[in-house]
Specification:
- By secondary structure, the protein is mostly helical.
- The protein has a single domain, classed as Orthogonal Bundle (MetI-like fold), CATH 1.10.3720.10.
- It is 80% helix and 0% strand.
- The model has no long low-confidence stretch (mean pLDDT 91).
């Protein structure tokens, strides 16, 4: 079977529509991962074992189980207990929850890298805990974290293809639907791979530039 370029061009707009859904799922999922990851990181630093131990256990459990299993659990198991949500919402939440366990480690490493003197200075100035975190610690900790967080965003973008397993009509699912309707899979699946590669590669290049810029600022 040879590539039919005319057919490939004709299906490109439909694939781009699926790509838009993929991008939305990735960005919403990343927003969830960024917020939940910070919450998990702070909770695991809690002096109370009643807080740090359960959160630590949850993080390890989620990180140690496949994303696909989590997608199936939220989409197929929870409805049996009356908890039914749209596929896109389930997919983005599962992505966000799964990757929040990784971003939490990025946050924890960034926070631990802050010099002890910064904490002592905040205490000496009688800063409240909220002001210490918001005004002193996080502004210094987050910039060095950005490249690592960006890598997880790229990973989330690529893994969003698994949302096809729960009927989300994202990029891969769109390609599969086109193939099933036309009985030609070469062009749609090849284009899906090219689109994933192009955006992932360009994003990786942008992250490298960001990392170089951050390194220059900290010299």
């Amino acid at each position: 079977m040879t590539v039919d370029w005319k057919f490939a061009w004709s299906i490109l707009p439909e694939l781009l529509s699926g790509l838009l859904v993929t991008l939305k799922a990735s960005l919403v999922g990343f927003a969830i991962a960024a917020v939940l990851g910070l919450v998990f990181a702070l909770a695991r630093r809690s002096r109370s074992k009643w807080v740090s131990a359960p959160v630590g256990g949850l993080v390890e459990f989620v990180r140690s189980t496949p994303l696909l299993v989590q997608l199936f659990f939220f989409f197929y198991v929870l409805p049996q207990y009356g908890l039914r949500f749209p596929a896109f919402l389930v997919g983005t939440f599962a992505l966000g929850l799964h990757y929040s366990t990784y971003t939490s480690e990025v946050y924890r490493a960034g926070i631990d890298a802050i010099a002890k003197e910064q904490w002592e200075a905040s205490t000496a100035l009688n800063f409240s805990m909220t002001r210490t975190w918001v005004g002193v610690i996080l502004p210094q900790a987050i910039p060095p974290m950005l490249p690592a967080l960006g890598n997880y965003l790229i990973g989330m973008f690529k893994e969003s293809a698994q949302l096809a397993a729960i009927t989300v009509v994202e990029l891969l699912q769109t390609g599969k639907i086109i193939g099933s309707h036309t009985f030609r899979y070469l062009e749609p699946i090849t284009l899906v791979g090219i689109l994933f590669f192009a955006l992932s590669y360009l994003s990786a290049l942008a992250l490298r530039q960001l990392e170089v810029r951050i390194e220059r600022q900290h010299r």
